[in-house]
Amino acid sequence: MGNQTLDGAQALIKTLDDLGIEFVFGYSGGAAIPIFDALETVETRMKFILVRHEQGAVHMADGYARATGKPAAVLVTSGPGAGNTVTGLMTAQMDSVPMLVICGQQVTWMLGKDAFQEADIFGITVPVVKHNYLVKETNDLVRVAKEAYHIATTGRPGPVLIDVPKDVSSGDFTESMDPELDLPGYDPYESLNIDPSRIEEAVAL
Question: Does residue 149 form part of some domain?
Fold first, then answer.
């Protein structure tokens, strides 16, 4: 893409690729169109798998992670599309399966106003995910994606949901693609300053 300015969706897709995500399972819809467009315009190694129902996308990501030990991404639209992911999220959370679920959402200024296909998927999924985000600023997307990946794959693994309003995904991204992360609660070994050689000594006893 040369020196062309990235929009939020393009920055998000590039970040997923940089994180090593190999597969994106999903089903399109209006609120997620900028992100689906970015799958086409950003050159990545990722493969997109079109499903017939959003619940199937989450279960496919679940099976992929169980078989390979690596997380996949799920991409769906707002409202009913996002709602259809809940059963799969619950399964992944109970069985400690890492994945990133990215949902399109109504524009930020319409949140809470019963807009078309608006649903509080952030609130709905609190009990069934390891962590979730509602991103309200385009420049937060890369940081959130990297945090979400780290949270999903460290400690006890689990699903992390990222809710992305359409104006956030279509806005201009002007921040660094390598933001500083501050997640001390998700770096248990690092925060405890454990010497790996001491662990090896204990195993050898």
Answer: yes
* Residue 71 maps to a domain: yes
Q: Examine residue 186 and state whether it is found in any structural domain, yes or no.
A: no
Q: DSSP characters for 140-189?
A: GHHHHHHHHHHHHHSSS--EEEEEEEHHHHHSBP-S-SSPPP--GGG-HH
Assessment of whether the complete model's pTM goes beyond 0.85: yes
At residue 64, what is the residue type? Answer: Y
For residue 197, tell me if it sits in a domain.
Answer: no
**CA 62, CA 89: separation in Å to the nearest integer?**
9
What are 21's two structure tokens?
């995500």
Domain with 166 in it: 8-179
User: What's the pLDDT tens digit per position in 157-185?
Assistant: 999 999 999 999 999 999 999 998 888 77
Query: E-strand spans in 33-110?
Result: 47-50, 73-76, 99-105
